[in-house]
Specification:
Length: about 260
């Protein structure tokens, strides 16, 4: 009981380190609510909690087990959005995210591949065929997508992938999407589940969400926190930002 009471007074970052064993160096996570381990969510407190008996320290028994990483059956009739992050010097990365009838998101697969656009497209085709994914929309990083590919003068990355048969719209990279990702990571009181579920085979997505941090100053300084995230481990969290900035809707994508 004493542990639960103390944990309730800590910030989510401190709770992740001291209760759930998250490494100290990852205490400034951009999306601290993300977890690949089963936790308890209190609907009264609207946050992860440590239980006292069968309830929360606040006295509420309205708690639910949750986890963002779970196996699920891919639904061929659900529309899928493919989000792409191109890179000139490291592998291209992409996520296949299904949109459920209630607009919840289920990531069925990922791809991390250093290849030219044509070979990358063929690898994506194999994933889509094997999982029977119906891709309704493709989005890509607007900054890299509109920049020269380097392979041919005056040709952008978006145009290179267009020529390979992978037509992508330039996404909105507004930081508003980061807050939307946090909202989707919360447990929905209607479904009693998070609005983002990632299949365990998406190992790089899970790895990056667990390590994506704010670019804070050293703790020895008294300067204000930065409002900028580090570039390291940012690829797949950024893909979710692009996706949620597009306000994915099952009915719109299904049509």
């Amino acid at each position: 009981e004493a542990v639960a009471i103390q944990a309730d007074q800590w910030t989510e970052e401190v709770r992740q380190v001291r209760i759930f064993g998250q490494p100290m160096r990852f205490s400034s996570l951009v999306h601290p609510l993300f977890t690949d381990q089963t936790r308890y969510w209190c609907f009264a407190c609207k946050k992860p909690v440590v239980l006292i008996g069968d309830g929360c320290v606040c006295g509420s028994n309205d708690v639910e087990l949750y986890c963002h990483v779970e196996e699920f059956h891919v639904e061929p009739n659900w529309p899928t959005v493919f989000i792409l992050d191109m890179h000139p010097r490291k592998p291209h990365m992409g996520a296949f995210v299904q949109v459920a009838p209630n607009d919840d998101l289920f990531q069925a697969a990922e791809i991390v591949l250093a290849a030219d656009p044509k070979d990358f497209k063929e690898a994506c085709d194999e994933i889509e065929t094997s999982l029977m994914l119906h891709v309704s929309q493709r989005l890509c990083d607007p900054n890299m997508g509109a920049s020269p590919s380097g392979a041919k003068r005056g040709i952008t990355w978006q145009e290179e992938f267009d020529r390979a048969g992978m037509f992508c719209d330039l996404a909105d990279d507004s930081d508003v999407g980061r807050k939307r990702v946090d909202d989707y990571l919360k447990v929905d009181p209607a479904t009693r589940s998070p609005r983002i579920t990632i299949h365990p085979r998406c190992t790089e997505t899970i790895r990056q969400f667990k390590r994506f941090q704010w670019d804070d100053f050293s703790q020895k300084t008294e300067r204000d926190q930065k409002q900028k995230a580090k570039d390291k481990y940012s690829d797949f969290p950024a893909l979710y930002r692009y996706l949620l900035n597009s306000d994915p809707s099952f009915h719109f994508l299904h049509r």
